[in-house]
Design goal:
Rossmann fold, 6-stranded antiparallel beta sheet, binds fructose -6-phosphate, Glutamine Phosphoribosylpyrophosphate, subunit 1, domain 1, about 25% strand
Length: about 600
């Protein structure tokens, strides 16, 4: 989603801003822009498409210009199509205020009507242009940009983050967040604002995590933070972030996605550190007593991880678990109380619907917990307990290693609350977990090779079913999602038992089915679905552990491991299949069309 960046300091802000926008490209965007201050006037440059295009235009138009104050933006369209006039930054009608904005202004129609009555007109389709003019209008009324900004932001509704400059005070940059991410990086004689810390980590590791409605004022050599509503000064601690910028680079892999798939064994190892010791899983910061119920909320791949977690927690710990898509959870009438632990699963910690779901859970008096990858992200600062997944930065828009790390976290919760730690099954899982990383590491190259062969077979198909039961069901949903996202081929994930209840009508020669099987009580049942599809001339590829024989047209055998741990071997196979098809179809693997890494709007 949109990326905001701001620089103030003694160096060339234009250069820093272009570099930062490139580092935030992975968030997903369709246009980009920059504004800088020079001799108390603003220059805006915007382009549709990649940041490389913006760089080229900047180099042609203002090659030798430098500026100590600049703002930049990558836009993911919400109001109006991707085009130059809708790209950010936006400027007020009188030219005195410029703004970059991430998120949505909910009452923009109301503000628009008020401004039109005052004689304002607009050239873009965006809520941002209305916001910048509203701020300017308030600045006139209040007799100062800061006072006007405060008044305007107190009136504006929505979830957003902004950074702005004004000719009324060219020595400052102002910024604020409400429901969308924004961080303040503290350098040596320079400050950075960004939606994402990867935009400034090559310059500083010192970060202030801004909270909602905290107004930041940046000058060349100092900064201040105050409450938007009371004006009280807020002293925030500066945190030193331990984040390896190296791991956010491709390191010889053709795509970030491939690199991140290959990082999964390391992620498994990393996520077990401090949790697995003396043959037991202990999550020391979780209460010892089982919560009476767990209600998982999440979106997309994180939701599928949650569904997988339901099977694991109910099987191993016997705790009733519900799993719900966060965008449904947030608006539904709910019967939850303090006996329910609401568990939010999110890689980014910034997904708008999951953030809103957490806020509602707190209002309802539920206990809250997050499984999250990004330290200091919005959700981690809202919930009672956080289980960090330690997957490292996930740059590819399509999630891979994050799901593995979420499943490990969920399995750890299941084992932590396991009702029978002395059982054979518990010991088997612990033994399996101890070897899991090396098993996955060993099989990845061969799995990639086979995936590339199956990709040839699949690349011209127009439609896919992914079927599974038990633990294979959430994996089937994820397999179908990865295929859709990466290749733009239609794919549906189904519980294999649902086939007869409608979807089977779609089966014909051109449909390819990927059937997922474990060597468990469901294997035979999924086999029945395979036969039914074959009886209607559909082709089937079965992905199953070695030794499990099916009637599928093609059998892709993976090494066998302990029960549900088989999921950690199956998941990379599904990821690599979609990845390989996407490569053959020459798709933009790391940045599929229309997608954003961090969905910070509803
Ligand atoms: C799929 C994908 C998305 C995310 C979803 C939730 O590959 O990446 O479906 O899983 O947008 O994001 P987080 O986990 O950041 O809340």
């Amino acid at each position: 989603m949109c990326g905001i960046f701001g620089y103030i300091g003694s160096d060339n802000g234009i250069h820093y801003t272009l570099e930062a926008l490139q580092l935030m490209e992975y968030r997903g965007y369709d246009s980009a822009g920059i504004v800088f201050e020079e001799e108390k006037a603003f220059t805006l440059i915007k382009t549709v498409g990649k940041v490389a295009e913006l760089k080229k235009t900047v180099n042609t138009r203002v090659a030798n210009t430098t500026s100590s104050k600049a703002l930049g933006h990558t836009r993911w369209a919400t109001h109006g199509i991707p085009c130059e006039k809708n790209a950010h930054p936006h400027q007020s009608n009188d030219g005195s205020v410029v703004i970059v904005h991430n998120g949505i202004i909910e009452n923009y129609q109301e503000l628009r009507t008020e401004l039109v009555a005052e004689g304002y007109s607009f050239i873009s389709d965006t809520d941002t242009e209305i916001l910048v003019n509203y701020i300017e209008y308030m600045a006139q009324k209040e007799g100062g940009i800061k006072q006007g900004l405060v008044r305007a932001l107190q009136h504006v509704k929505g979830a957003f983050a902004i950074a702005l400059m004004s000719t009324r005070d060219t020595s400052s940059i102002y910024a604020m967040r409400r429901g969308a991410p924004l961080l303040l990086g503290i350098g040596k004689g320079e400050y950075f604002l960004a939606s994402d810390m990867c935009a400034f980590l090559q310059h500083t590791n010192d970060v202030i995590f801004l909270d909602e409605n905290e107004l930041v004022t940046l000058h060349d050599t100092e900064y201040s933070i105050e409450s938007l509503y009371t004006g009280e000064r807020i002293d925030k601690s500066i945190e030193s972030v331990d984040f390896d910028i190296q791991s956010a680079q491709k390191q010889g892999y053709a795509h970030y996605m491939l690199k991140e798939i290959y990082e999964q064994p390391d992620v498994i190892e990393q996520s077990l550190i401090g949790k697995l010791s003396d043959g037991k899983i202990v999550l020391s910061h979780l209460p010892k007593e089982q919560p009476p119920r767990i209600h998982i909320i999440a979106c997309g791949t994180s939701y599928y991880a949650g569904l997988w977690g339901k099977y694991a927690i109910e099987e191993l710990a016997g705790i009733p678990v519900e799993v719900e898509i966060a965008s449904e959870f947030r608006y539904r009438k709910k019967a939850l109380d303090k006996n329910t632990l609401v568990l939010a699963i999110t890689q980014s910690g910034e997904t708008a619907d999951t953030v809103a779901g957490c806020a509602i859970a707190r209002e309802l008096g539920c206990k809250t917990m997050a499984i999250c990858n990004v330290v200091g992200s919005t959700i981690t600062r809202m919930v009672d307990t956080v289980l960090y997944t330690q997957a490292g930065p996930e740059i590819s828009v399509a999630s891979t290693k994050a799901m593995t790390s979420q499943m490990i976290a969920l399995l750890c919760i299941a084992l932590h609350y396991s009702s029978n730690r002395e059982s054979e099954q518990y010991r088997e899982y612990i033994g399996g977990l101890q070897h899991l990383a090396s098993t996955v590491r060993d099989i990845l190259p061969q799995t990639e090779k086979i995936a590339r062969q199956y990709a040839e077979l699949c690349k011209d198909k127009k439609s896919f079913f992914y079927l599974g039961r038990g633990y294979c069901y959430p994996l089937a949903l994820e397999g179908a999602l990865k295929l859709k996202e990466l290749t733009y081929i239609h794919a549906e994930g189904y519980p294999a038992g649902e086939m007869k209840h409608g979807p089977i009508a779609l089966v014909e020669k051109s449909l390819m089915t990927i059937a997922l099987l474990f060597d468990d009580e469901f294997g035979e049942k999924t086999q029945s679905a395979i036969s039914e599809i074959q009886a209607r001339e559909g082709q089937v590829i079965a992905i199953a552990p070695l030794g499990l024989v099916t009637t599928a047209d093609f059998e892709w055998h993976l090494p066998k491991t302990v029960d549900l741990l088989q999921s950690f071997i199956m998941l990379p196979a599904l990821q690599l299949l979609s990845y390989s098809i996407a490569c053959l179809l020459d798709r933009n693997v790391d940045m599929p069309r229309n997608l954003a890494k961090s969905v910070t709007v509803e």
